[in-house]
């Protein structure tokens, strides 16, 4: 009974009138325009200055991280060569297997 009363209270002011129908159509048109504008804005998100700055910052972080790991690899190579001098050929073979060649260098 209470729910029926609530329903009736909510229906008041929502009678189907021409004015309400026009307002609902206008609302749908505005919502559709808003959706299209959001899609258009998303298409230009790549040109957003703050997004470009964030990508530049992320690139700098990735660059320094790559150089840090390169330094770690060189340090590990030096340690292995110093610790296991008799296994030089095996170490060279292992480096080549994992992709560490003579042209392995820091990023510029």
Automatic annotation (TrEMBL):
Transmembrane segments: none annotated. InterPro entries: LZ3wCH. The keyword Transcription regulation does not apply. GO terms for cellular component: nucleus. Residues 51-107 form the Leucine zipper with capping helix domain. Residues 1-22 are annotated as: Disordered. This is Leucine zipper with capping helix domain-containing protein. It comes from Aegilops tauschii subsp. strangulata (Goatgrass).
């Amino acid at each position: 009974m209470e729910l029926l009363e609530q329903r009736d209270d909510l229906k008041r002011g929502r009678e189907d009138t021409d004015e309400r129908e026009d307002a609902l159509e206008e609302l749908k048109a505005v919502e559709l325009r808003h959706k299209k504008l959001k899609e258009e804005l998303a298409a230009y998100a790549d040109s957003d200055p703050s997004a470009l700055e964030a990508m530049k910052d992320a690139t700098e972080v990735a660059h320094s991280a790559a150089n840090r790991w390169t330094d770690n690899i060189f340090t590990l190579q030096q340690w292995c060569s110093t610790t296991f001098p008799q296994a030089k050929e095996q170490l060279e073979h292992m480096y080549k297997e994992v992709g560490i060649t003579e042209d392995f260098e820091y990023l510029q």
